[in-house]
Amino acid sequence: MKIDKLISACLHSLFIIFFSVSFLSCQDEKKKDPENQTEEIQESKKETERGPDVTTIVTNAMEFKTKDKLDSGWHTFRYNNKSNETHFVLFDRYPDGYGIENAKTELIPPFQEGMNFIIEGKMEEANAAFAKIPEWFQGVKFKGGVGLISANSTAESTIYLEPGTYILECYVKMPNGMFHSAQGMVKEIQVVAADSSKAEIREDYTVSINATEGIVFNQNPSAGKKIFKVDFGEQKVYENYVMHDVHLVWVGQGSDISQLNDWMNWAAPEGLQTPAPQGFKFLGGMQEMDSGGTGYFTADLRPGNYALIAEIPDPQGKGMLKTFTVK
């Protein structure tokens, strides 16, 4: 209990003696238990800091269960993936006048048609299918989200949302090459204008990523629950229609990192497709943003080997795969 609250409560009491005894007792208890005192100070700091609102997203199979409307500003999204598949949550801000029906009828079909042709080895037909992608898609802005997260796991990311219409999507592929988005993993939410003052976010580590230098991360993380800040520098669109992002992966002993590298390209026949490569566990991360964007993600690090990797073709060859060890 804070001292000011204790004094306030006691001043309203008619029992002055009780106040005196309680006050002295509390003082004496704090002197005897410095660990208790540290906890109270930490709680006091937490109460004075304004953190982002926390919104839960749940997937049981092939769906996103979450709120339909949010205020603009900073939000922490806690994604509980209860399914048996690897998923992610990408936040797409659509141009005015477009929404989920446009996604289902105009955008997802040409991507799926193109993917089907790629699997069949018919690249000319695949390119013709991708040419059907509507022009309004150029106006979609990628605003971050929760990175790849393995089955039956939870991840957290914090992003800033401007007012507008957003589509949440996951386009990891099923074993037959069908995008999860084609199976129902799309959801529309409306973000309305509200107080957008910056929340208090204190990162433990910073990851920088840009098209020229790749992922820049030269720190030695320690074990425990950590907050990673991701700063996006120069951004670009790659040959698979996506921009670079950052995903955190636990790397098992003896795992073949080249398999992870190849799997990250959805446009490859078996890329971003269930099952995910063995020996790796996805722990979340930050989805793509425009140049100058900033997002945060939280991870509970344990001793072992890890990788930060982007979801683009050949991330290792582009400097977008960075390994590190937690001791």
From TrEMBL:
Residues 30-53 are annotated as: Disordered. Residues 42-52 have a biased composition (Basic and acidic residues). It comes from the Bacteria. This is Uncharacterized protein. It comes from Christiangramia sabulilitoris.
